[in-house]
């Protein structure tokens, strides 16, 4: 039997440069970055991608106070995705709805905050919040969304480092095809800018970006790139089986065409271009396509010196020859690295290309690193193209996890 066709019917997001897909897309085409300076405990002013959504749009003040930033982002994105999907959600059997949210890490923020708070009281644990445990369990972002929406089906997070956003969609696709759920809310969230440990960790690796102009700090592929800009954010989708979406007359953004997940098994941090190449090739094969059939490749590139080069090596091995219609871009140059939300946000930023036939560029590339020069690389200015039928989204993470997701233009 052929697997069920799975389609994207709704998108909800918050990014450092936009709180909806139309706003996000407008800023990607307009070259508008969303990086600013933020005071980080023990470290002073640091560059960060900060979201400016309204948490009270879908939560009470008490819910925001009791919950977490990652949970709040998940609730905002889930509610916005449901609204965008046009589904009449009240009569939907809530036990048949699944929530699958990718995250890089969870709980560091809350634990750091509690330790800092009780340090003011000689570490007396009677001042430790009794909300700490539900705040720090790994399933928190999905759990908070299920509480807010009254969803009684499976709701859990997927820990896949910075490949997690893609994994949220991939896992939802699998659960829909298995018949475990009939409707899925999926993607990724990140609250990473609220923990000094993330900043300190990248600083100790000499991988934290610096630049006098925050908007130019994230510069993948540029010779002057000097590290990652840490960001928060979220993007959740509604996914459905095609027949269900058509039965209710839903608009369809795209169809899931193929995917693959593999592991480097070679290093804690350094990427492995051979394994990345294998991941990309396997996803293309699963989709029943050839490399030349891919029209947009969204790179994972985080603006680290070696990481960008190695990813470009992997991409070049697949798309280096015979792919004149393949265009390559990057979204982190606008929003920094949103960790567990990165893959989901980066896919969303490219989805409108199916309609406007425009590829948003990688910005902040003043001096292209020759080792990152790829055929089809779109730099600094949007490119109008003849055809966009397929989008390939790369998302890779620490401990060597790689994910590639391919979506195609929906054709009935």
**Secondary-structure arrangement, i.e. CATH architecture of the largest domain:** 3-Layer(aba) Sandwich
Q: Kindly state the percentage of residues in helix.
A: 25-40%
Spatial strand arrangement across the major sheet: 5-4-6-8-1-9-15-14-10-11
Distance between the termini: 19 Å
Describe the structure.
This protein is an alpha/beta fold. It has two domains: 6-247, Peroxisomal Thiolase, Chain A, domain 1 (3-Layer(aba) Sandwich); 260-404, Peroxisomal Thiolase, Chain A, domain 1 (3-Layer(aba) Sandwich). It is built from 14 helices and 15 strands. The protein has helices at residues 21-29, 61-66, 69-85, 108-119, 132-136, 140-149, 164-178, 196-204, 242-247, 273-286, 305-319, 332-335, 342-350, 353-356, and strands spanning 6-14, 35-40, 44-49, 97-103, 155-159, 183-190, 230-231, 233-241, 254-263, 296-299, 327-330, 358-359, 383-384, 390-397, 401-408. A ten-stranded mixed sheet has the order 5-4-6-8-1-9-15-14-10-11, with helices on both faces. A three-stranded mixed sheet has the order 2-3-7, with helices on one face. The chain is globular and about 65 Å long. The model has no long low-confidence stretch (mean pLDDT 97).
In short:
With 412 residues, the protein is an alpha/beta fold.
Name some characteristics of this structure.
Peroxisomal Thiolase, Chain A, domain 1; 2 domains; 33% helix
């Amino acid at each position: 039997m052929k697997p069920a066709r799975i389609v994207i019917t709704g998108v909800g997001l918050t990014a450092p440069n936009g709180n909806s897909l139309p706003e996000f897309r407008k800023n990607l085409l307009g070259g508008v970055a969303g990086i600013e300076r933020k005071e980080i405990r023990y470290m002073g002013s640091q560059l960060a991608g900060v979201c400016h959504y309204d948490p009270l749009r879908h939560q009470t003040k008490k819910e925001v106070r009791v919950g977490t930033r990652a949970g709040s982002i998940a609730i905002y994105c889930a509610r916005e995705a449901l609204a965008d999907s046009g589904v009449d959600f009240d009569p939907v059997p809530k036990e048949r709805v699944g929530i699958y949210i990718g995250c890089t890490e969870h709980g560091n923020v809350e634990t750091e905050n509690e330790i800092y708070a009780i340090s003011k009281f000689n570490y007396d644990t009677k001042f430790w919040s009794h909300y700490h445990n539900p705040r720090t369990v790994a399933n928190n972002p999905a759990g908070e969304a299920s509480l807010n929406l009254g969803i009684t089906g499976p709701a859990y997070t997927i820990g896949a480092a910075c490949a997690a956003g893609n994994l949220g969609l991939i896992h939802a696709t699998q659960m829909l095809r298995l018949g475990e759920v009939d409707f899925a809310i999926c993607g990724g969230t990140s609250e990473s800018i609220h923990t000094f440990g993330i900043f300190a960790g990248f600083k100790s690796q000499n991988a934290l970006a610096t630049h006098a102009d925050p908007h130019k700090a994230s510069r993948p592929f540029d010779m002057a790139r000097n590290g990652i800009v840490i960001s928060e954010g979220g993007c959740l989708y509604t996914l459905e089986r095609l027949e269900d979406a058509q039965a209710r007359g839903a608009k369809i953004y795209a169809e899931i065409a193929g995917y693959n997940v593999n592991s480097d098994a070679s290093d804690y941090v350094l990427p492995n271009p051979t394994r990345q190449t294998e991941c990309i090739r396997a996803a293309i094969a699963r989709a029943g396509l050839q490399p030349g059939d891919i029209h947009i490749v969204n790179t994972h590139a985080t603006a680290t010196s070696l990481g960008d080069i190695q990813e470009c090596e992997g991409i070049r091995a697949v798309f280096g020859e015979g792919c004149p219609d393949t265009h390559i871009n990057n979204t982190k140059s606008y929003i920094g690295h949103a960790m567990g939300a990165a893959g989901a946000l980066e896919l969303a930023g490219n989805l409108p290309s199916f309609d406007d036939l425009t590829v948003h560029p990688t910005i902040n590339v003043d001096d292209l690193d020759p080792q990152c020069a790829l055929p089809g690389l779109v730099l600094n200015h949007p490119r109008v193209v003849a055809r966009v039928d397929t989008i390939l989204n790369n998302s890779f993470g620490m401990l060597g996890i790689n994910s590639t997701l391919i979506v195609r233009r929906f054709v009935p």
